[in-house]
Write a structure and sequence with these properties.
95 residues; alpha+beta; 5-stranded antiparallel sheet; 2 helices; 5 strands; 34% helix; elongated
């Protein structure tokens, strides 16, 4: 079974919503993993397409919570490295 049949990552558009002369189409990014005994699907909103007056504008959706989690993870790694270096420096015997 090829890997592309097991793992798929794609952007999917939902049905558009029309209000007056404006057409709004939500988009999601989808990760699908298939196993012989089941699978997993993970969706996250990625953008909204707004079509008006023969112009299309793509408005990205920023996940602020994920950005904060990545920053906090980076800070934890940095502090862990600093504490490890300081502890190793203290543990060295002085001559």
């Amino acid at each position: 079974m090829p890997l592309k049949d097991i793992i798929q990552y794609q952007t999917v558009s939902a049905d558009p919503i029309v209000v007056g002369d404006t057409r709004v189409t939500p988009q999601t990014q989808t990760l699908t993993i298939r196993f012989p005994f089941g699978g997993m699907v993970w969706n996250r909103p990625s953008a909204v397409l707004v079509e008006r007056d023969d112009m299309t504008q793509r408005i990205p959706i920023v996940n602020v919570t994920r950005v904060v989690q990545i920053v906090l993870f980076g800070l934890i790694l940095s502090f862990s490295a600093i504490i490890t270096l300081l502890a190793a420096q203290r543990a060295r015997p002085r001559s």
